Amino acid sequence: MSMRGSIADRRRRAAAVAAAMLCSSVLTGPEIARAGGATPPEVPAPRPAWSPCIPGSPFDCATVQVPLDHRAPGGRAIGLAVVRHKALDPGRRIGTLFFNPGGPGGPGTVQMPQNYEAFPQTVRERFDIVSWDPRGVGNSTAVNCFGDPDEAADWLARKPAGFPVGEEERSAWISSYKDLGRRCEQRDPELLRHVSTAETAQDLDLLRRAVGDRQLTYMGISYGTILGATYANLFPGKVRAMVLDSNIDPQAWTDHGSRKEPSRPTFLRMGSDRTAAATLKQFLTRCGATDVTRCAFSAGSAKATEAKFDKLTARLRKHPVDGWTYARTVADVVNSLYIVNPGWSDLAGRLQELWEGRVPAPPVSPPAPPVPDPSPYTGEEQGGAVLCGDSPNPHDPGAFHALEEASAARAGDAGRFWTWAAEPCSTWPVRAAEQYNGPWNKPTANPVLVVGTVYDPSTPYAGAQAMARELADARLLTNTGYGHTALLNPSGCVQEHESRYLVDGVLPPSGTTCRQDTPPFSSPRPRGGIAAGGGATARDSS
């Protein structure tokens, strides 16, 4: 993920999981009582003072206070920014659907309003939909390791775009992230220790209590699936319904809960490199199978289009196009695979511009949502601090070049991108105060619906299969399609099954497979932007 001062870039790109830094600590919080320790004191439920986010907005906003440390609720408090859209059919309202847009580092107060129309119509009718900026993120009490935007921009300008290429860039990359960790530790080390997924799950339970729901109804995408799985195992009796879309394998995320230093970084354990490579191959194959009116980068066949892409990346290694380096282009490619329509057509247009030696036009952003601050500071240290509290990575930054080469041998350019996305973890200085490493199979009050897309450039379909196996009671719904999350790459079939499950508790039959509504390149190249969910962009391309 890359650090930016504005959410505008996030609206232009789909988002992966954030690049992060290493943290590891023992399990604490709600699990202490079950392990024989003292029960943490009950925290009173916050009372949101809802009001229109801005005059005329269909969304309501509030800020609630929660303990920084749930084990010491009388200590420092932090603010959580919350947003709500009331049920469209209040007479048939069931309750509240809580939504996490992924990341980590995705600001829900921006991304839920942007993507509200993507939720199934029946769900919007029957539920208030609520999201929030998790602790450490966006409009909540946020991790911010710079004194002002200029300082942040200066730091960003010193590191290579995308990922490092060559010894000089590797040294600059490692030095930049070591400096970022030092800055963060100096500014608010206490907050850095208390932004873990386990603590956010406890915040989520406070929010459930705040809206008066007896049990939680939840949808999480991308990183939001790990948050959901953590909640389900910390509060198994409170699960009413839970949709987990584009899943991370919990064992890959935690390295099986091992206390030993891992040999591979998070995203390689997850298989992000392989699934990105497979999705890129599909992009090039389907592009080559159509003409240039539908895919501008087409060379007339799959084989010729793959060869054209290889020639372009090789040329950019030696001759960048006005700042569009090889690494920046690869990062843009991986991020642009997240949203099929219009993302794939727009990506093909940028690749063709580069092929012809021209600088691509910047992507078009969708309109800002009607909220007070649609562009909060979302520097990459926010998502990084969360990921580092949960997911272990190698300690030695010098190990990443060899890891990159091994990943590139099996996954090509995407392997280089995903290897370096986790390198900042190697020098992150702070450990999380609370971390949940399993078990993942505590019996929940109700079953969980797991949705997996076959060609996902970030979270592989195998992650959804693993999540369905790990949870005590889960059903896998397969989405035969492309892109990151079925929510943002819609399938009417998936939406129908999600709606029946969320409203009536009816799971799809075992083995159910759906298809995406609109295949890639099925119409002439569209124009315009789409709001990208899934949290923070793994590596900025700009």
Outline:
With 542 residues, this protein is α/β, with parallel strands linked by helices. It has helices spanning 8-12, 31-34, 108-114, 121-126, 149-157, 167-187, 189-192, 197-210, 223-234, 250-254, 266-270, 272-288, 302-318, 326-336, 343-355, 380-390, 400-411, 413-420, 461-470, 492-504, and strands spanning 51-52, 60-67, 77-85, 95-100, 127-132, 216-221, 239-245, 448-455, 474-482, 513-515.
How does this model look, in words?
The chain is of the alpha/beta class. The protein has helices at 8-12, 31-34, 108-114, 121-126, 149-157, 167-187, 189-192, 197-210, 223-234, 250-254, 266-270, 272-288, 302-318, 326-336, 343-355, 380-390, 400-411, 413-420, 461-470, 492-504, and strands at 51-52, 60-67, 77-85, 95-100, 127-132, 216-221, 239-245, 448-455, 474-482, 513-515. It has a 10-stranded mixed sheet with strand order 1-2-3-5-4-6-7-8-9-10, sandwiched between helices. It starts with 7 loop residues before the first helix and ends in a 27-residue tail after the last strand.
